[in-house]
Structure formats: C-alpha cells, structure tokens
Amino acid sequence: MLQPWPDLDPLLGQAAEQFGTPSYLYVVDRIGLRLAELEQNFGQWFRLSYAVKANPNPALLAWLRGRVPYLDVSSIGEVRRAIRAGWPAAALSFTGPAKRVAELEEAIAVGIGELVLESVAEAEAANTIAGVARVRQRVLVRLAPDHVPKGFGDHMAGRPSPFGIDVEEALEALPQIASMQHLHIVGFHIYSGTQSLKSAAVVENWRIFLAQFRRFCDLIDLEPERLVFGSGLGIPHHVGDVPLNTAEVAAQIAEDLEQFRQESRFADTEFLLELGRHLVGEAGVFLARVLRIKPSRGAQIALCDGGMNAHLAATGQFGMVLRRNYMLHRVDGGEPCAKYDLHGPLCTSIDRLAAGAELPSLAPGDIIAVHSSGAYGPTASPMNFIGHPYPRELIAEGDRISDATPWTT
Fold it and tell me: Which regions of 254-322 does DSSP assign to beta strands (E)?
C-alpha cells in the first residue's frame, strides 16, 4: 500500500523550502511499491511497458531503466529522450496516429524495437522507408475494437477514432500489411480505454482483447512474439474514488490468460502490460504556495503561485467531463475547518485548482499539496501561457531530494 501523502509532510516541506514552488515531487520509492504490487499480481503473465507520455522526465526515465523492460513512446522527441536517458532503441515501441515521414525514417534508422502501425497508409510509408534502408522493420498492428465496457474515464472504441485499424476493416487491411516485404508483423496492440477503477470493466476489456488477438492471429496465421494489452488501469484522483484492486483483476482474468497460453499459437508469446499513470501517477505531488487570501462574495479565495499553467489536469481541463477537485491537503495541515477556492496566477477564470476545498485555515506562505500528480503534469500543461515561471521537477529517493527539472526557466 502507498503511504498517505500527509504522512510524508516533512519531505514535502523540505522540497518546498529547498527548491521553491510551484514544483512537482516524484517519490520513486512509491513507484517501487507499485512495481512490486504489479509483479505480485501480474508477473506470472505480463512484462511491463511504460507509456512515456504519462511522465517523460529524463531523470525518471533513467531511474526506470532496469526496473521496467520496455517503453512505449509517442513521438520522435520521446524516442530521443529515452535514448538520452540510456534506453536502447530496441526496447522502445513507437505509437501514435500521425507519425511524420521524417519520424518514421529516424525511428527505423536508430533501430526502434517496433513501430506500432495505426493505418494501412502508415504501413505503406513505413514499408517504403524500410525498403530504402534495406531492413525488415518489426511492427505491431494496433487494433481498434468495436466496443469498450462501461467504467473507463475515456475510450477509443466503437466510434470514429484516429487510433488503430478498426476491427471492421482489419479483415481486409491485415493481409495487405502482412504482404509488405519490408515489414515483419510481430504481434498486435490494443489500447481502447483509460483510467478505470472498476476491476470488472478491466477484466471484460481484456477478454475483448484476447478474442481479437485470437481472431486476427488466425486470420494471417501468425504466431505472435508479442501482444500488448493497453492496461487502462486507473488511479484515484478525487475524494471518494476507490482504488483499483489489481489483485481482484488478476484473480478474475487468470483462467482466461491460462487458457489462452495453452493454445499452441500463443505458447511462446510475450504479453506486455502497457501503462503510464497507474505506475507513476500516485508517486507524484504538485506543490503550490498560497500568496494571498481574498474574500469575495461569501467565498474565500486562496491565490497560489501555480495553477493551470503548471498543472492543467488538476484544473479539470484535461478531458474531464465533470469538474471535480483532485485530492489535496495543506502541508503540516491540521483538521479541515473552512472551504476555499484555490486559484492560480493566470488572468483567466478557468485557472482554478479547486472549488470549495475543505482545508485547515490558510494563510500566505502555506503549501498546498495536490495528490496523484505524477502523470500528465508539466508536459500536459500550457506552461508558456502568460509567461509565469515553469514548475520545478524534483525526485525523492529515501530522504534525498534532487532537482530533476529539464526546463529552461
């Protein structure tokens, strides 16, 4: 179990005092606990692939090297960042619906592990480039199922989508790709739902994956080296969220996976569990300092030095249908006794970290800690908007905190 953030207040206070605010603190010991939990529950079936887009901090990528076997990258920039952090190109899969020709050329040139193909047109482009390079490029074909169970925060199935080849089209598309002489299909990839906290939904979704993997491996007579399960495993962000029980997921899917493995076609297949936020999200906290308290028409507004520019997701502008506060607390807090609206420094009304948050009495200088901030933080935020300082990024291992900020501030 991960330690509650208020229990780590001495570490949070040290980070704010030593490095200032706004800042992110990534506690890698918490990632280690999550890795141990995933290994205990899924290790008998799956190896892990970390989705770099969740948090591409270079120092974090370096720390993950040797702890996670694979990375999934979504741009040539992430390819370069991973290689600079010490990852071999062969450990990377490159996904994304609109890869530029130059990106495909560079990825193939550096020896990318697999290209994840999202369309026949992309396959044709990759085949041409690989032919010029005189290589046979390993590829995974991304499939887009025709439905996804209820219980996911977002989904990419059963509706028009830029992601993957619709299963309705795959009967025609896959033989075309399989015939391309400079591409080697090594397996399939499905990622059709995100941020689920419901074990039954995750299990049902993975059963859809298994059915589609079986169907299309049969179609092109493929004994796959690798099948990628886009996990969709969520984390609690809001008060009242119940954490996903991964042991329950494992128990419910075990028979399906064991039966699948017993089929001769999949006896030697490597199953990858691709995940981002579930691995690193709960290991991060966003720290912002209260600058002023402003009473306004019956509300108490706490004006903070970091807001939407530094943490878009916490303001509800990152795909949320209903705006809900992230869990947060006052560092070295006390019992809640008042309600506050927390606003950042931007000249826009949508720069609001929380509305009606129940907190101890706040005063200028207090530090607010926003939980579950280890994923989709700085790089998913409009840091250049209105020109405020970029947030710092810090890494804590044990009681040692180091500055891991990659930005020019």
Answer: 270-275, 284-296, 299-304
137-144 and 165-166: which strand pairing?
A: parallel
Torsion angle, alpha carbons of 80, 86, 92, 97, to 10:
-20
Where in the chain are all domains bearing CATH 3.20.20.10?
Answer: 88-275
Residues with Cβ within 8 Å of residue 400, at least 6 apart in sequence: none
The Cα-based distances of 289 to 13, 227, 339, 369 in angstroms read: 11, 45, 17, 9
Burial class (CB in 10 A: 0-12, 13-18, 19+), 160: exposed
Residue spans of beta strands (DSSP E) within 344-391: 352-359, 367-370
The whole-chain average pLDDT of the chain stands at 95
Would you say domain 282-403 falls under CATH 2.40.37.10?
yes
Angstrom distance (rounded) from CA 146 to CA 291 = 50
Half-sphere exposure at residue 333, Cβ-oriented, CA atoms within 13 angstroms: 20
CATH C-level class of 88-275: alpha beta
Which pair of structure tokens corresponds to residue 402?
A: 């180091």
Domain with CATH 2.40.37.10 in the chain: 282-403
Alpha-carbon distance 405 to 394, whole Å? 7
CA 172 to each of CA 143, 212, 297, 372: distance values in angstroms, whole numbers, following the listed order? 13, 15, 63, 43
User: With 0-12 CB in 10 A as exposed, 13-18 as middle and 19+ as buried, what is 269?
Assistant: buried
What tens digit of pLDDT does each residue of 14-48 get?
A: 999 999 999 999 999 999 999 999 999 999 999 99
Alpha helices in 225-265 (DSSP H): 246-262
Highest mean pLDDT among 160-169, 317-326, 366-375: 366-375
- Spell out the residues 6+ positions from residue 330 whose beta carbon is closer than 8 angstroms to its own: 359, 360, 362, 366, 367, 368, 369
Going by the DSSP 8-state scheme, the letter that residue 18 receives in this structure is H
pLDDT at 409: 38
